[in-house]
Amino acid sequence: MANEATVYKELTEVFHDVFMRDDIALTPDLTAKQVQGWDSFKQIEIIMASEEKWNIKFNTRELDSLLSVGDLAKMIVVKTGG
Amino acid sequence: MTDLHWLPTIPDWRPRLRALAADPAKAWDEAVALANGRINFVLTNALDEATRRVFPQAPATLATKSVRLAVLGSSTVAHLLPAIRVAGLRRGIWIDTYEADYGQYLQELSDPESGLHAFKPTGILLALDAHHLTAGVTAGMDDATADAALAETKSHLRETWKLARDAFKCPILQQAALPVHLPVLGLNEHRLPGSRARYLARLNEALRPMAEAEGVDILSVDDRAARDGVLAWHDSGLWHRSKQEVSPTAAPLYGDLVGRWLAAKQGRSFKCLVLDLDNTVWGGVIGDDGMEGIAIGQGSALGEAYTAFQDYCRELTRRGIILAVCSKNDEVNAVEPFEKHPDMVLKRGDIASFVANWSDKAGNIRSIAEELNIGLDSLVFIDDNPFERNLVRQELPMVAVPEVSDDPVGYPIALSDAGYFEGLSVTDEDRERTSQYQGNKARDALKASATDLPAYLRGLEMNLIAKPFDRVGLQRIVQLINKSNQFNLTTRRYTDEDILAVMADPDAFGLQLRLLDRFGDNGVIAIIIGRLLEQKDLLIDTWLMSCRVLGRQVEPTTLNLIAEQAKKLGAKRLVGEYIPTKKNGMVKDHYAKLGFTVAAVNDGGGSRNLLDLAEFTPAETFIHVTEG
After folding, report:
1. How far B240 CA sits from the closest chain A CA (Å)?
2. For FRET with B582, which of B105, B251, B415, B525 sits at 20 to 30 Å CA-CA?
C-alpha cells in the first residue's frame, strides 16, 4: 500500500542514489531526456531499485510503456495496491 | 539470495558517501569502510563513481598490488565492472577494468593493435554467456553430433585461454556457464543429447579438469546459482532487454566473487577464524550454566545447530584454516568443554591460540595475531554479541567480522558466503597447519593492547536506567539472582518472597539496572541489594552483573548509585563482601579496584572491604544515568 505522495518521496531517494545527485526534483512529466546521464542502464537501475524497494515486478509490456516518472509512479501505486 | 548479508548495514552510509571527497587524505580508508557495508547494486555503483571521482588513479601508498583486469564477454558486462572494482576496494585493492568490445573478445586477443593489448591486463576474466556457449545446439541433435559440438566448445575455450596466456602471461579466470536454459524433456533431461540445459551441465563439468590441466581458475557461478536459485542470478526479461546475463541485482555478489579470487591470487585471503565461545560455539554461558547446562550436541535442535557449526569449523581446519578462541571467561571454565564435554566436535587441539580472560576483545585479538605471527588482516572474528562485533570493527577495521544473528544455523552460511577463506589450492602443509601453530606457540610474547577504549565507550552513548525493585521486574530479578555465577560477589540466592521483603523493608534498597546504548537495549544487566546495618554501615548484600557488559564502566557507575542510595538511608560507610565460589574468581578484587579498603581476608580468600562515604568522590564515566 503506497499513495502517490510517498511513492514520489521514496522514488526521489532512488533517483538520488542512482544518479548520485541530490538536486533532481521529480515531476510526473520528467523523462530521461531531461536528466543528464539517464541512459538505458540507469533506466534499468531505476526499475530494479524500484522492484527491490516495493517488492514488485514489472513485466515486459509494462516496462515498454514507461515513458515518464509519472508512468512509473502510477504503476508502483497500482502494483502496491494503493 | 545474492545480497552481501554478512556485511553490516551502515546507518549513515549515504551521508558518508556524499562527504567522501571532503578529506582526500582519509578518502581511501573511508571508501574501503563504505565498501564493507551491506550495499545493493545501486549503492555499489554510487560508491564506485564517487571513489573514481576522488581517485582518478590508484592512490600511491597502497599496501596491496593494483590489478588491471580485462573482462572479455560475449554479451553485456558493463554493469558488472563497478561491482568488481568495489569488491577490490572492499579488500583494499585498486582495480582498473577493461571491457572488450561487445562479442569481440577473440579479435581483441589476436590483434596486437587492439584496445585490450594497449590496456596490458594483469588478469583476465572470460565471461561467456550461456546463449553464446550453446549457439547451434538443438534438441534435434543425436549423441555423436552433440558430443562433437561439446568437443568444439571445449577446444574453442582452450584456444582462447592459450591466446590470452601467450599475449599477456597473466592469470585467467573462466566463468562457468550460468545454467539459464530450460529443460525440454523433463526429469530425465540427460537422455536428450541435444538438450541445451544438459549441454551446459556437461560443459561445466568438463571445464574443471580442463582448467586444471591448463592452469586456469574457475568462477563457479553455476555453484552459486545452485545455492541462490538461477532466478536470483538471471532475469530473462532483462536478457531480452539489455543482454545482461547476470542480473544487476546479483552484480555486487558477482563482483565479490571476482574480488575474492583477485585477493587470493595476491595471498590476501583470510587465514584464521577467531571464535567467541558462549552462544557462538555452544548455547548458553559456560560460567553460569556449567558443563551440563550448555546447549551442544544431540537432544535439541539448538544443540545440533552448534554442533553443525563446530563441524564446519573443523572442516575448515582440515583445509588449512587456523582456529583461535577469544572469549570473555575464566580460562579454566572456557577450556573445560573442549577437554571434557563428550559432544564437543572441536577439541582443545584444534585451537591454535586460546585466549579466555576478561579484557577487551580487540586487545585480545591483537594478542592472538601476535602469538600466531600472522597479520591482523588475516583474521575473521565471529561473535553472537553485536557489542563485541562493533567494538572489534571499530578498533580493528582490518579484521573481518561477519554480521550474524543469535541463531547458530546462520554461522556456517555467513562464513561460507562471505568467501573469507577463498583458497586456490590445498597442500599437505595446509592440512597440518593447526598442529604447527600449536607447536610454535609463544605465549610469553603477548603485548598489552593499545586500543583506544575511551573513544569507543564515549561513542556508545550508553544510558543506565536505575530502577528500584518492582513487581514488573520481579521475575527477571529472581532469575538473575539465581542464575548468575561469575560476576556475583556473594552468590546469595533469593526467592520471590525474599525480594518482596526487600521492597517492603525501609532499611534496605534493591536496584535493577538496565543498560541501553546506540546498538539497542541490553536489558536488565545488574542487580544490587543494600541493607543498613548498625552504626550506619550499609552492607552490599548482593552485587551481580551480566558479563556481557563487562569493560563498559558499568561497575563504577553502579557504585555511584549505591553510594547515593546509602546516603539516603543515612549510611556513613559501605561494606562490600566477596564470598568466593568456584565460579566467581573474576570479581575477587572487585572492591579493591573500586577504591575500597580491604579490612579482612579470610582463609578461603573471601574479603570484607570498606569505603568511607565522606571520602567518596563519584567516578566520572561515559554512562549517562537515568532514575527510572
Report:
1. 9
2. B525
Number of domains observed in the structure of chain A: 1
Model pLDDT for residues B365-386, shown as the tens digit of each residue: 999 999 988 899 999 999 999 9
Kindly state the cell numbers that stand for B551. 569493560
Tens digit of each residue's pLDDT (9 = 90 or more) over B325-348: 999 999 999 999 999 998 999 999
Q: Catalogue all structural domains in chain B, each as residue range(s) with its CATH number.
A: 66-265 (3.40.50.1110), 272-451 (3.40.50.1000), 457-627 (3.40.630.30)
Out of A44, A59, A60, name the one closest to residue B248 (CB): A44
3-state SS of B463-526 is EEEEEECCCCCHHHHHHHHHHCCCCECCCCCCCHHHHHHHHHCCCEEEEEEEEEECCEEEEEEE
DSSP for B78-94 reads GGGHHHHHHHHHHTT--
What's the complex ipTM?
0.92
> How many other CB atoms sit within 10 Å of the CB of residue B602?
11
Q: Which of B43, B244, B248 sits opposite A17 (nearest CB)?
A: B43
For B146, the 3-state DSSP assignment is helix
| Segments forming the whole domain that contains residue A58 | 4-79
Chain A positions touching B18 (Cβ under 8 A) are 22
Bridge partners (DSSP) of residue B400 are B380
Interchain pair A44, B241: CB under 8 A = yes
C-alpha–C-alpha distance, residues B70 and B556, integer Å: 59
- C-beta neighbour count of B180 within 10 angstroms: 22
With beta carbons less than 8 A apart as the criterion, state whether B157 and B204 touch.
no
CATH of the domain at A46: 1.10.1200.10
